[in-house]
Amino acid sequence: MKLNLKLKIIKFILIFVFLSALAYANRAAMPYPVELKTLDFIVSNGVDIDLNAADNQKKCSISYITGEQDDDGANTNKGKKLFNIKSDTLFRSIEKLQSITNKSLSSSHLQYVLIGEETARENLEYFTKNYSNLSKIRLDVNIFAVKDLTSEEFLRKALTSDIDINDRLDGIVNDREQLSYLTKKNLKDLLQLTYNKTQTGVIPVLHIIESPEESKDKSYTFGYYGLGIIKNGKLIDYLPVELVRPYLIATKSVKNTAIDSTEAEALLFQIENTANKISFEFDNNNLSSLSKVIFQVNIDSSYAEASVTQNKNDLEKLNALQSDVIKGEIEQLILVSKKLGTDFLGIGEILSVQHPYKWHTIEKDWANIFQNLDYEINISVKTQRYYN
User: Fold this and answer.
1) CA atoms of 286 and 351, how far apart (whole Å)
2) Which CATH number fits domain 253-388: 3.40.710.10, 3.90.550.10, 3.30.300.210, 3.40.50.300?
């Protein structure tokens, strides 16, 4: 009797150990509710809104990326999943997502929100008004527009790469070489742009690119495209990344970027600092008539190329080459501003501060006036350090 009992106990233990080992070996293939574990630690999400959809179509789509670290503790896209919910409003989309988990879905974890291109072009104001009213939403959450795609399409393609989406976004936000750390915008910034119809501005833009990984299943990643131009509360066009630097030089101080002058034997000049001043000239016969906008840009640069001598004439020539590069970029930027009829350089705002009375007399006609103005661009480059 006792022997039979012992045999049964041993048999039970062996079966339990076998089943446990089998389950552990196949744990990756076993279905389990991932969202129950990770839904309350969401870092990034996408939003798409179509207010022109037919009545039987869902108008608002919200996408959340969830996942945990891999077995080695590294952040990758390997364990991430994309949850996309559609409804007639943003709030109801989030309610539907909440219904599939027993945990409280909190927006306080969000660091990044991606807005689809169509939403940014047509329904950006709707997004800001409704999204900012969500409970526990962070006003400092970083906002991006995505080029050519909905945010859902963008996230699905980005997830095909092993490069972690959240880590990649962190890198772009803090990237000093592409100057994207100076162009980041949060929800509060976007609210100011969309609530004030007369104000224009920019928003950072991401785009899908081919992944450098040699794998058929991992064909995409994403990068920093440039800046989206906001006018009348909507995205109207883009400044590609090559025009981001002159935009920043013309509007604020810039550090840590390089000037590439092919005429100077492909030398790279490192910008150490920039200072920009905008002033105005008026018609003497009509003091309220603005005739010219003057950009005065001072740049300190350096280089460390052994092929360049310390000859003073060489330095003056190199400074002139750098000045020509920056001047050409700012001229191209002004042409884009005139073509779009959008003062995204904030010239009118500076004029209103420097000459408030004169601004009052031309404010209503500013949209037409600034496109016909003459612009004088003076660039002064000084090379402070060089190869020794």
Assistant:
1) 16
2) 3.30.300.210
